[in-house]
Each structure stands twice: as C-alpha cells, then as structure tokens.
Amino acid sequence: SDLTQEGNKPIPKGHAKWKVLGRPPATILKMKKPLDVVRSFRLQQKQRRRTNLGSGLDWEEAKAKWMSWYKKNKKNRFDKIQLADSPKKEDVEAAFEERQERRRRRMEARPSKGRPGGRTRNLANARNESALPEWASGD
Q1: Is the entire prediction scored with pTM above 0.85?
Q2: Residues with Cβ < 8 Å from 73, sequence gap 6 or more?
Q3: Which of 4, 8, 41, 45 has the most crowded Cβ, counting Cβ within 10 A?
Q4: Residues 10, 1: contact at Cβ < 8 Å?
C-alpha cells in the first residue's frame, strides 16, 4: 500500500500506477546497425560505377550524349540547359582552346617544383655565367 493525497491506498497495476509513480523512461526499440566490416578495418570500398564517361568520346558520340542529356532535362531543368554552352562544334573547340590557353598561362606563372618559393625565373633568358661565383660554375 502507498500513501496518496486521498489516503492510504494500494499501488494500482498497469498504466494506472503512472499517476502515482510517474511514467517510466522510454525504451528505444530501434535496432542498432552493426558497424560495416569494410569501415571497421579501414579498407577502401569498391568504386562505384561511373555514369558520366565523357572523356574519351569523339565529336559525334559527345554530341549524341549531349543531346540525350538535353532531351532528359529540357522539361524539368531548363535553367541548367540555359547555363550550358553552345553545342556547336566551332563553339566547343573555341571554348576548349580558350581553356587550354588559360591553363598554359597558369602553368607558366607557377614556380618550379625543384626549389622553394620566391620569384619565378624566366627560363627563356640565358643564364649569366659571369654573375655567378666561381665555385658555382659547371666546369
């Protein structure tokens, strides 16, 4: 029996005892997932199959791929299609040449990897042998 506001009463059975003792903490019934074996051994997972294999295509195959992408996306994602460049061959080749030229300029501006930072030397100019100390000469 238990002492309540109404007097000395027995503790009820089932859910009614929650009024007297309070609700018990919830038991989580969700199963805990076991740890992935590959991740636990820190191994690399198998590579996923790549879907956008557009690197080794010739012009006709690339054009067909672009047109199929356009047909799939013209209804739902027209804003993406408007962002895409022109599919004409001349425009594609001009954009490619422009990207290659920018890449070439960037590579020329980078310092050489053989020595630590500092100003880059213009390798086109001949080396001034007279300005070097005598121990630095190559002979």
Answers
A1: no
A2: 80, 81
A3: 4
A4: yes
